[in-house]
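Project outcomes to date are best conveyed with an example. Our students and postdoctoral researchers have been running inverse folding experiments weekly, and each run begins with a structure described purely in tokens. The record below, which covers 164 residues, was selected by the lab manager from last quarter's runs and is presented without edits.
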């Protein structure tokens, strides 16, 4: 079976370009504990990795992520992304034209289901860890090159899937 990293390296890191994956306090702590400098994090609007002058994530080098083993939850979730509406966690998948991994997942149902589950777990953890103001700022981000693939009702208290 083909490796996700191989697929991602072939595309040239499109998801790492002009991407500002949110960082929860928990993720920032993990990054700092693993030697990442606080100066590589941008705290404007919401915490996320800084962007280089060329538009790529500061952690994207030589076609790959330098913090792959501790990367942000939304990066782990990729090519899935999310939105929240009326206590419903909406899961979206990037369109095939912009993400080779999305195309691969669509063609391999077992792998799709595995990555979907991982994505929901990571997205759920992220939204649970974010405060309401930061989450509201993140939810303003539009991602038009995606297709909704699931709606997951959250518990009445919010932020936790009622059932997976």
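After processing, the design step wrote out the following sequence:
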């Amino acid at each position: 079976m083909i490796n996700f990293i191989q697929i991602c390296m072939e595309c040239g890191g499109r998801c790492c370009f002009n991407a500002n994956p949110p960082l929860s306090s928990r993720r920032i702590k993990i990054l700092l504990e693993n030697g990442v400098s606080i100066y590589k994090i941008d705290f404007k609007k919401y915490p996320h990795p800084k962007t280089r002058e060329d538009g790529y994530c500061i952690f994207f080098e030589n076609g790959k992520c330098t913090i792959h083993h501790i990367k942000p939850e939304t990066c782990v979730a990729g090519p899935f992304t999310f939105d929240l509406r009326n206590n419903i966690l909406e899961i979206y998948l990037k369109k095939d034209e912009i993400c080779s991994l999305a195309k691969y997942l669509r063609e391999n149902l077992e792998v799709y289901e595995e990555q979907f589950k991982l994505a929901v777990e990571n997205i759920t953890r992220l939204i649970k860890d974010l405060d309401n103001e930061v989450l509201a700022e993140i939810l303003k981000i539009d991602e038009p090159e995606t297709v909704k693939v699931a709606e997951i009702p959250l518990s009445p208290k919010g932020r936790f899937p009622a059932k997976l």
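Strands lie at 41-42, 48-49, 60-61, 64-65, 80-85, 88-94, 146-153. The mean pLDDT is 89. The training component of this project remains on track.
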